[in-house]
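Running this now, will post back.
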Amino acid sequence: MNKSLFEITQMDCAAEENLVRMKLDDIKEIRRLDFDLSERNLTIYHQGKLDEIEKSINELNLNSRLLKTEQTNENVEDDSIQKNLLWTVLLINFSFFVIEVLFGFISGSMGLVADSLDMLADAIVYGLSLIAVGAAFARKKTVAKMSGYFQLFLALLGFFEVIRRFIGLEILPDFRTMIAVSFLALIANSVCLYLLQKSKNREVHIKATMIFTSNDVIINLGVIAAGFLVNWLKSGIPDLLIGAIVFVVVTRGAFKILSLAK
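Update: finished.
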């Protein structure tokens, strides 16, 4: 059994982790993938095929490099527990997509609507990683392409809505709802990241700073900050700005998914 350590400097959230999982799913010689998002590292347990593994990871353009590879006698456990946890975080993300998009429209906050799409984007990627298990390569490419275009379509709709509201100078969003719902989403994202990290590093304590380096948590904090600014400035512009920023993040994620379908 070989144990290879890769550094992937642009892998800073669970969505990118699952893109890597999808990319490597066809390599049957891989026995287990251990991700450390806080360190941007991936440890792969495999039986040969190192060149193919390295090429596949590099094709994602996440600034990756092989740090070391060695022989190991470690006992590799089944990944079924990790799959169950992926279902858990998928349901959490999709549930908060529904909650945020609902309260986003009720409160008039584009920040919440944008954050809901980011939650949906994560749920899509988790779903893709689960659908891909045991599926034919052509099917995985089709599913990835459809999901990527759907995510891109939602992001473009969001950009148009931001522009329309900026021109229309609509009423102020409800800053209390923005802050309260984003705070709950912050807790949900923290739980998801905790579960994912725990599933891959059972004997290692979770680093507290890891949660706060993820894009999702930064977005939640951004929406909360925008809520305070809306109240302080009596202007909806901070809400529109954070909404536009989040739509950029969602668009970036869509192009990463589409890159898998090439």
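Confidence is low (pLDDT under 50) at residues 201-213. More later if anyone needs it.
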